[in-house]
Each structure stands twice: as C-alpha cells, then as structure tokens.
Automatic annotation (TrEMBL):
Residues 3-69 form the Mur ligase C-terminal domain. The lineage of its organism: unclassified sequences, metagenomes, ecological metagenomes. Residues 97-116 are annotated as: Disordered. This is Mur ligase C-terminal domain-containing protein. Pfam families: Mur_ligase_C. It comes from marine metagenome. Residues 105-116 have a biased composition (Basic and acidic residues). GO terms for molecular function: acid-amino acid ligase activity.
Length: 116
C-alpha cells in the first residue's frame, strides 16, 4: 500500500488501520517501509488523518482513503470501536464545508462527543 501511494500520489497521509493489538506506530512503520519519499505526512489518529487530507486538498485534487474498505469498526486492544471510513469522510467533509461557510459544528466519532 505504501509503495503504490508513494509512486502515485502528490501527497501521502499515512495513518493507522485497524491496529488490533499492535500499536498504531507499528502499522504506520509497515506502511512507511514500502515508501521512498522523504516527506510522507504521518498522523496516527485515522480521523485526523482523513481530515488533514481533505483540508489539504485543492479543488482539482482527488483524495483516496484506502485500506479499510467496507469495514465499519476498528479493533483496538481487543475492543471493537465503530469506525467507517465512508461516514468519517462525509462527517469531516461537512465539518470542513461548514467551517468555510461559518456554520461549523463539532466533529463526531471515536474520542469526540456530540454536542447536538
């Protein structure tokens, strides 16, 4: 995965992917091992990594969120935490769009509390 992103993307944001019992840094190290570029952006928190990719993108960019496919949860230290990349992309896109239009609302998801 790291090699393909390295060869194909202008910007790569490397983040965790279903760490199970492994520290997120181990997952990230495995991805980085396949890369040659000196400047990948590393963000262990997957939601923040997705938000960073969306925030950094320009209107002509394509953002690819890869690695989890249809999965709707992440296993972390023996517990399953709800996490669906598709929903997170929509939530973070809406949050970004709202911040631009002045109708910002807080992000939701793991480690975030809804204020609605």
């Amino acid at each position: 995965m790291g090699r393909v992103a390295d060869e194909s993307a202008d910007l790569v944001v490397v983040t965790s992917d279903n760490p199970r019992g492994e520290p997120p840094e181990g997952v990230i190290a495995d991805i980085l091992a396949g890369m040659e570029r000196p400047d990948p952006v590393v963000e262990p928190d997957r939601r923040r990594g997705i938000a960073l990719a969306l925030t950094t993108a320009t209107p002509d960019d394509l953002v690819v969120v890869a690695g989890r496919g249809h999965e709707t949860s992440q296993e972390e230290a023996g517990r399953f935490v709800p996490f669906d990349d598709r929903k997170v992309v929509v939530e973070e896109w809406e949050r970004l769009r709202s911040s631009i239009t002045g109708t910002e609302r807080p992000a939701e998801g793991p480690n975030r509390r809804s204020t609605r």
